[in-house]
Amino acid sequence: MNWLNSQAFTLFGQHIIWSDMVGNILGLITLALGWRRSLLTWPVQFLSGLVLFSAFYGHLAGSAGKQAVVMAVALYGWWQWQRTKGRSEDGHIAPRFATWRERAAMVAAAAAGTVAVALLFKAYPTLSWDPWPDAYIFVGTIVAMYAQAKGMVEFWFAWLLVDLVGVPLNFANGYAFSGFVYVIYGALVLWGMRDWWLRSSKSPQPVLEGAPA
Description:
Strand order of the largest sheet: 1-2
Organism: Streptomyces cellostaticus
InterPro entries: NMN_transpt_PnuC (IPR006419)
Shape: globular
Distance between the termini: 56 Å
Helix content: 55-70%
Subcellular location: Cell membrane
Membrane topology: Multi-pass membrane protein
Order of helices and strands: EEHHHHHHH
Largest sheet: 2 strands, antiparallel
Radius of gyration: 18 Å
Number of strands: 2
Protein name: Nicotinamide mononucleotide transporter
């Protein structure tokens, strides 16, 4: 798998490596499939994580570990969409807005997770080149994938917040292709957000436990 870490080409003076390019192209396809609410979203997400895991394994344990978590969440997302598909008229998962309880839980999990992971990265410097933003992106990605698995429109907002940090961080650390892809992510996120937002108005909203019927 050494070829994954070799240079593919140079773009605008930036060295593009194969793993960065292949993994992120698959990630871009994943986001497009997610916008279409296709069940293929999750196998492609898993494959993207597998490519990056193979590239990092053996010399960047922290990065490989993060991709292992991404693959696990991708399996959860596939299982979740598989068991809930068919709730909308077109046979795909029906988008919905999260309840306030769900939003609070995700924000709390993102905040606590970012602090915990950043402290872990600081304790073991070989796991990350920039602990706090790296932890923010990693935890934000997991939260976004979880919200996506649940069919929540908020997953697009989570991806947008990840993009705001991911773009400059990737360029600053030499992962130029990731930076370019994150810019495209931003456009797809806004487009997908609009689509899911409009579709959510046609979907039944969840009822909180204990709320009056």
